[in-house]
Amino acid sequence: MQHGPAVRRRKLGEELRALRDRTGLTSGEVARIVGWHQSKVSRIETGRSGVKTQDIRLLLDAYGDVVGPQQRALLEALGASAAGPAAGGDEARGRQWWHDYRGLLPQEYRDFISLEAGARSARTVELSVVPGLLQTADYARAVTRAALGGLPEPKVDALVDVRLARQAVLRADPPLELSAVLDEAVLRRQIGGPGVMREQLRHLAEVARLPQVHLQVLPFTVGGHLGLTGPFVIFSFPNIADLDVVVLDHLTSSLYLERKEDLEAYSAAFRAIQAHALPPRDSSDLISSLADDA
């Protein structure tokens, strides 16, 4: 288990090394082309140091036609999430919208948003609350107040704005493909009161109709299941092999798992949980019924 930037740096280095190998260039030859010392190329390829977006672009330019436009965009996004303070902080991460909130958001949350923004798909299991990508503003505000008691209202409002801004990935071109399994407790827990829950449930039913959203409910009647070990998210990315990552949220931190055996275990767990959940249409019917009764 590693924190996000370290995982991203290593993955980025592996991909840049693979591209260089495809060109037939040595690290020393690449260094001469871009005007660096050979050791800098080596540090980037082994993930020992952060890298600025501008440096990634220089390397990709040196590799020419072996890099397609979509892969270039993804590698630049990966570099933004991999950059650390030693690589120039926010400058190294580009000008993504979430950095306007860098005085408010912990670095780990910004790393998570960066992964989410660059992913092709996300698979998530939630036991307690509606996933952030599917929350209404009032529900997000109630969750934030409950989780961060005593936070001044302006900061609560700013965190809600971030939550809503993240949801743009569901309507991007191409959109994030979201598969979510929600424990029935998520639908029945009265966060924010009956009115807030009613609107949240109606919103869930509406979002579930989006073609790239696959929403299922795990009913109480299932009893014990693998998801009881805790919520998780699996991000998958286009055009780069072996880049999936599992994110586990804890009270004070997030952990990122990217070993093959971890990914296989969590992918298998997600499939098993999905198999026990209600089909999407039945899930939507249950959500709508609960909204009417709220």
UniProtKB/TrEMBL annotation:
One Pfam family, short name: DUF5753
Recorded superkingdom: Bacteria
Annotated CDD domains: HTH_XRE
Alphabetized Gene3D superfamilies for the sequence: lambda repressor-like DNA-binding domains (1.10.260.40)
Domain HTH cro/C1-type: 16-64
Protein name: Helix-turn-helix transcriptional regulator
Species: Streptomyces racemochromogenes
